[in-house]
């Protein structure tokens, strides 16, 4: 199947689902002589309704599509949530130096588009001593000769993996949901690009693909997860998944941003494990969560280990 046909397949499916979800009459169907895999993709069941054999068939189809498009072997896995695990994240604001290495590591690990540029992590810069910290009016684009800057502190923001995620409630096709390990995931094949989830997210953590995501084949991470870092389509929403392809496949492994942080500002672990590092900092540090008054119950905790 040509790349043009694949792109049309995505447009047709999302147009059809969007029409059904929004009550529109017009919807485009694949041509009668379309490739069989195109029809398979068009009529793909909701991920949570498929059995193991059906999921395996979908994964194999995607692997064939990606290999044809990128001319390299890309595996698409489907590791399930681990029993007895609820992931939590901690970020020491007194250590963060605003270097954005977490951002670059996330881009490389999770196959984010470089043109147009998409980042799942945003590092905000604030002046020290200000009475109020306004996330909406913060500075996202800064480029000093070196960091950290004495008069500033930094706050990285990404998906907060809410226990009560408003993005999930508003999705008309149920393309996004919260798994038992606390990770809020997205099925890109069911996303219709309506962006209701983006409007509902109070943290600005979701990103929309306005154009065909662009990455060179040699830059692609070939180890992907269906609900995580597999190549995306134009017209879908994406976001941080705590590197689901890592943390479920290799229990105990950190997300890429945690590994990349040069000052150890990022912490990650199992909230249900009383001996985990994340539980220690919650119990021994003065932690806070963003916009707690909204009752989203983020599993992302900020704290200051020492004065700034």
Task: Please tell me about this protein's structure.
The protein has about 300 residues and is α/β, with parallel strands linked by helices. It has one domain (about 75-308): Alpha-Beta Plaits, CATH 3.30.70. Helices cover about 25% and strands about 15% of the residues. The strands form 5 sheets. Strands 10-2-11 form a 3-stranded mixed sheet. The longest helix has 20 residues, at about 5-20. The chain starts with a helix and ends in a 5-residue tail after the last strand. The relative contact order is 0.19.
Quick structural overview:
The protein is α/β, with parallel strands linked by helices. It has helices at about 5-20, 35-40, 50-70, 100-110, 165-170, 195-200, 245, 255-260, 275-285, and strands spanning about 75, 85-90, 120-125, 150-155, 175-180, 185, 205-210, 225, 235-240, 265-270, 300-305. It has one domain: Alpha-Beta Plaits (2-Layer Sandwich), CATH 3.30.70.20.
CATH-level-2 architecture: 2-Layer Sandwich
**What's the end-to-end separation, in Å?**
57 Å
Mean pLDDT: 89
**In the CATH hierarchy, what is the class?**
Alpha Beta
Main sheet properties: 3 strands, mixed
What is the fold-level CATH name, i.e. the topology? Alpha-Beta Plaits
Strand % is 5-15%
- Widest sheet, order of strands: 10-2-11
Bin the helical content. 25-40%
Rg from Cα: 20 Å
Q: Count of DSSP E strands?
A: 11
The unreliable regions are 1-11
Number of domains: 1
Tertiary shape: globular
């Amino acid at each position: 199947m040509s790349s043009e046909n694949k792109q049309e397949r995505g447009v047709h499916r999302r147009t059809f689902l969007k029409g059904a979800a929004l009550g529109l009459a017009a919807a485009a169907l694949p041509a009668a002589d379309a490739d069989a895999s195109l029809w398979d993709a068009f009529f793909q069941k909701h991920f949570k309704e498929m059995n193991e054999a059906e999921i395996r068939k979908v994964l194999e189809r995607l692997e064939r599509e990606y290999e044809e498009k990128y001319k390299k072997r890309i595996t698409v896995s489907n590791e399930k949530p681990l029993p007895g695990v609820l992931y939590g994240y901690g970020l020491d604001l007194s250590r963060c130096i605003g270097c954005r290495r977490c951002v670059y590591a996330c881009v490389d690990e999770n196959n984010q588009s470089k043109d147009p540029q998409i980042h799942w992590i945003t590092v905000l810069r604030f002046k020290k001593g200000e009475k109020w910290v306004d996330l909406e009016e913060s500075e996202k684009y800064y480029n000093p000769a070196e960091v950290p800057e004495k008069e500033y502190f930094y706050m990285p923001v990404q998906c907060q993996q809410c226990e009560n995620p408003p993005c999930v409630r508003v999705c008309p096709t149920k393309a996004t949901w919260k798994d038992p390990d606390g990770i809020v995931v997205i099925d890109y094949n069911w996303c219709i690009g309506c962006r209701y989830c983006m409007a509902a997210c109070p943290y600005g953590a979701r990103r929309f693909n306005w154009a065909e995501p662009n990455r060179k084949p040699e830059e692609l991470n070939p180890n992907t997860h269906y609900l995580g870092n597999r190549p995306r389509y134009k017209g879908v929403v994406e976001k941080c998944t705590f590197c689901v392809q890592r943390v479920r496949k290799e229990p105990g492994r950190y997300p890429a941003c945690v590994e990349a942080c040069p000052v150890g500002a990022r912490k990650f672990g199992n909230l249900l494990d009383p001996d985990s590092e994340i539980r220690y900092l919650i119990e021994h540090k003065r932690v806070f969560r963003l916009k707690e008054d909204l009752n989203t119950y983020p599993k992302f905790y900020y704290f200051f280990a020492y004065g700034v």
